[in-house]
Amino acid sequence: MSAPARVATPPTAAIIDGRALARNMRCDIRARVVDFVSRHGVVPGLAVILVGDDPASAIYVGNKIKACEQVGIHSRTIRCDQGVTTADLLALVETLNRDPAIHGILIQLPLPAHIDMPAVLDAIDVNKDVDGFHLYNIGGLIVGSTVFSPCTPYGVLKLLEHANIPIEGQNVVVVGASNIVGKPTALMLMARDATVSICHAKTRDLAQFTILADILVVAAGVPRLIVPQMVKQGAVVIDVGINRLPDGTIIGDVDFDGVARKASHITPVPGGVGPMTVTMLLSNTVDAAARFIV
Ligand code: GUN
Q: How many domains does the chain have?
């Protein structure tokens, strides 16, 4: 008797569609901007500082500016040469801090190595720190008193909320301990009473941790780092990775096709977390403008 034919298991996970959620949220933000302008006669304004000519940074900044246009936020891009000094940037930030037409200031990272990045980020007026990278906002995540949450972790939370994923009491594993994604994501989920473990590039036996996760957030910058054997059946998997392969394809940190057969919910790349990051920046900018109305 011949062996039964092998049938490939179809993906069973629900796709958490960040593109659709971002589109809906941007409609709401646009309506909020229209209402804000008619009530106060003030257009929310965002300044973006772009240093050097890194092509990826230029694309990210272009996307942010385009998104501002879509929702009616005024934006100003300030381009600086690679050789700009810390003192020049501090002076620029100080000018923008005083500019009444600007309610949010974003400095695109990474900055060149010779720049004192913490000094420049901490020079931003906390009330205009729409990226949430000022020491006050980062530190505030510990005690729950931020003015602005960093955009990518904020977007991750919105995706979980939108998909009705319970967070309280869940085992969350965050893979990646960066200051701008991994650590703040972990703190924001702890604030929702999750049990959070943070893994990183030097974690031994990563799979021993990831297999325990009810919610697995991956922000390691390593293509297809997470394979199905590392994921618990029914886990919720949020892929923050954006990796460009030599052929130009964009993929995440998760083996999507394999893991989608095991997870209950999964975000795609592209179209998951990415569109939410920009959306939360828009939301923070409108919130920032509102803080300036007395
Ligand atoms: N570089 C990569 N991600 C980000 C981000 O969210 N904000 C800024 N300012 N720079 C980045």
A: 2
